Amino acid sequence: MRTLLTISSFFWVFGLFAQSSDSLGVDDNPILNDSEVQLLSSLLSESRNDFDFTDKKVAFITGSNGRTIVSKSEYFKNSVIPWIEKDSEPQIFMVELTEGEKNESGGYDVIVLSWVKIFTPKSQERAIQYLGNKK
What we know:
Blueprint: H1 2-19, H2 34-43, E1 58-62, E2 68-70, H3 72-85, E3 92-96, H4 99-104, E4 110-114, H5 121-133
Parallel strand pairs: 1-4
Antiparallel strand pairs: 1-2, 3-4
Helix pairs in contact: 1-2
């Protein structure tokens, strides 16, 4: 039953966003708009536990080695929207930052990754340092 519910909600969400993908990645503000919050919440429903993307500062990383930090608009344009338009699910996961990592990164709450094969603790630390230095 749970699988059926997950599958049906998956198609409902993608049907909804396939029609309104123009509201995704419209700016590079690391705080998500309502459509972006809803989509990421749905895509990450199995892994985000009780994490709420509302009013959270989000960094986006792509690339097989997890070293490519991209803008929000570039992330949605290249890593999410093409798959939604094909009624497919993009490969996506998240790393919630600790309070210390949040401070070191310049206030980012979470890192959202797509199409990353390897994301090690060293990769995460490098990303956090980069984010903190780009203030």
